[in-house]
């Protein structure tokens, strides 16, 4: 395994991050295809053996049971200082807003619950899971800064945002002396490259780590169309929503991945991730079987030629935003976000 620094932090992370959305009680969340604790432990143990030291979970994954499974496995199989643990928090609920719970209080409640689930005193990276249009960003950055100062999180990151959003948030943090985001977890892979428009160049300029999710497009980049299949592929309607509409134009790229894999004597997983590793710090790769993390780990040692990279990239055409990013907008067209708590406490103002 190879390692690198996580953006403007002092965290050293493996080039592959284990995504833990597939871990957790399948009866307690939005996904029916997640795996139980026994199999979670097997995969995490194998990941550690392969040198994976970066683990990404979230309070939203299966009602916190992913955090619980991950926390117990890491406590049993690794020393705390040898692993980098990331988790995420959700926006305030409407009920919290109506009851007057501030952004700062919400973040404090969220981190305390996650730390209890994980059985840890702190996390290395605390990630804003999605853009909160109803809470002033000043409140969010202040709340995150408070938990960093309290030692509950070493660094902060953000997921599912536009480049202009992280740029403005970090500018506000710099102005106020708050902790700044050191990483972005966006939707980015060989068949969905919209992050290259603004986010990738911005992060390269600012040394912000790119740790994309959906690195294998929910498995689509690991096998030819119609070949094999998984429980997730059959049951995850959200993944189908993100990719099925563009399947025809993506299949040419997937076919080229297969061609290079056959020529090089490696798997499609290795080729797809090797390409992504030329662009990002550490892709978040989900695993529900041990061979998933074994294939991902091998990708860190595969170097594609410039000609192979061009061949893989050439068929790409622009894609519409999908998933969480398609929903990253105000509820009404003429509403815009409130940045300062002094503007309007509920978080929205009309032009």
Characteristics:
13 helices, alpha/beta, 351 residues, two-stranded antiparallel ribbon, disordered C terminus, 13% strand, eight-stranded parallel sheet, globular
pLDDT under 50 segments (min length 5)? 344-351
Query: How many E strands?
Result: 12
| Strand residue content | 5-15%
Mean pLDDT: 90
Q: How large is the radius of gyration?
A: 20 Å
Order of helices and strands: EEEHEHEHHEHEHEHEHHHHEHHEE
- Multimerization state: single chain
Shape designation? globular
Q: Describe the biggest sheet?
A: 8 strands, parallel
The strands making up the biggest β-sheet line up spatially as 9-8-7-6-5-4-3-10
How would you sum up this structure in a few lines?
It is built from 13 helices and twelve strands. With 351 residues, it is α/β, with parallel strands linked by helices. Strands 9-8-7-6-5-4-3-10 form an eight-stranded parallel sheet, with helices on one face. The protein has a two-stranded antiparallel ribbon with strand order 1-2. Strands 11-12 form a two-stranded antiparallel sheet.
């Amino acid at each position: 395994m190879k390692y690198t620094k996580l953006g403007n932090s002092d965290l050293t992370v493996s080039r592959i991050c284990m995504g833990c959305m597939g871990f957790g009680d399948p009866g307690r969340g939005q996904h029916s295809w997640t795996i139980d604790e026994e199999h979670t432990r097997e995969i995490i143990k194998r990941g550690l053996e392969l040198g994976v030291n970066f683990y990404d979970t979230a309070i939203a994954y299966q009602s916190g049971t992913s955090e619980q499974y991950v926390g117990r496995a890491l406590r049993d199989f690794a020393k705390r200082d040898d692993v980098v643990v990331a988790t995420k928090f959700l926006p305030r609920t409407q009920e919290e807003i109506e009851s007057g719970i501030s952004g700062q209080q919400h973040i404090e409640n969220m981190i305390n619950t996650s730390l209890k689930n994980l059985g840890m005193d702190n996390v290395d990276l605390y990630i804003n899971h999605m853009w909160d249009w109803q809470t002033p960003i000043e409140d969010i950055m202040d709340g995150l800064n408070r938990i960093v100062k309290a030692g509950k999180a070493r660094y902060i990151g953000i997921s599912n945002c536009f480049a202009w959003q992280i740029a403005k948030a970090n500018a506000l943090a710099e102005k106020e002396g708050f902790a700044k985001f050191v990483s972005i977890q966006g939707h980015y892979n060989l068949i969905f490259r919209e992050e290259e428009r603004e986010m990738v160049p911005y992060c390269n300029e600012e040394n912000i780590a790119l740790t994309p999710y959906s690195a294998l497009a929910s498995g689509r980049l690991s096998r030819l169309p119609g070949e094999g299949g998984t429980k997730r592929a059959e049951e995850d309607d959200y993944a189908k929503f993100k990719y099925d509409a563009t399947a025809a134009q993506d299949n040419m790229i997937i076919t080229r991945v297969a061609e290079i894999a056959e020529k090089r004597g490696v798997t499609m997983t290795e080729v797809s991730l090797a390409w992504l590793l030329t662009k990002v710090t550490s892709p978040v790769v989900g695993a529900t079987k041990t061979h998933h993390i074994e294939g991902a780990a091998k990708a860190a040692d595969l170097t594609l030629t410039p000609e192979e990279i061009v061949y893989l990239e050439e068929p790409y055409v622009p894609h519409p935003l999908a998933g969480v990013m398609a929903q990253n907008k105000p509820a009404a067209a003429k509403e815009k976000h409130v940045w300062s708590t002094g503007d309007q406490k509920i978080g929205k103002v009309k032009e």
